[in-house]
Amino acid sequence: MKDARCLAELLNKGIRVRYALKSFRLEGRPYKQGSLIITKADNKLKPDFIPVFKRLVEKHTNSINAASTGFVDDGKDFGSGYVRMIPRVKVGVVMGDPTSTLRYGEIWHFMEQQLGYPFAALDAEYLKGVDLNKYDVLIMPGGYGYRDLVDENFLKKLKSWVASGGRLIAMGGAIRSIGGDEGFNI
Questions:
Q1: Exposed, middle or buried, 172 (CB in 10 Å: 0-12/13-18/19+)?
Q2: Of the candidates 67, 85, 81, 75, which has an alpha carbon nearest to the alpha carbon of residue 7?
Q3: What pTM, to 2 d.p., does this model score?
């Protein structure tokens, strides 16, 4: 969780972060798959990169190692396709009837209080009119009565958004509402 908070804050501060798809060895030190890589070159358009980065490192006291090169001793170099940028995703969370206030509250608490990552609260009453293309992730918390919200037109819109790369996280009663013959294959 400590690492996730650090990553969330780095992204929130506009610092570009990459991750390694494979483990590697650099300057005699091993790094595991998933290691985060932050370079000055990726952040050259951010004039306050160094002071912001230093503050975050001190705040989170994560294991940070400086490297003098992106050419690794063993594994894939930093410039390869095995080192990918982590995008700052826009998250929308459905709230209001038909979601359970407890289920929404769990997500709110995790995202805002524990992780420190912003999200848009999308009132279910207006969800059909929301441009889903403004979001990378849509979370539908558990609840009852989603069948009234998820009609044939909204389901088509949702499926099209997912087919275009949107990521849908449906929980509890929301899962049942998007499944079935016309829905997603679950």
A1: middle
A2: 85
A3: 0.85
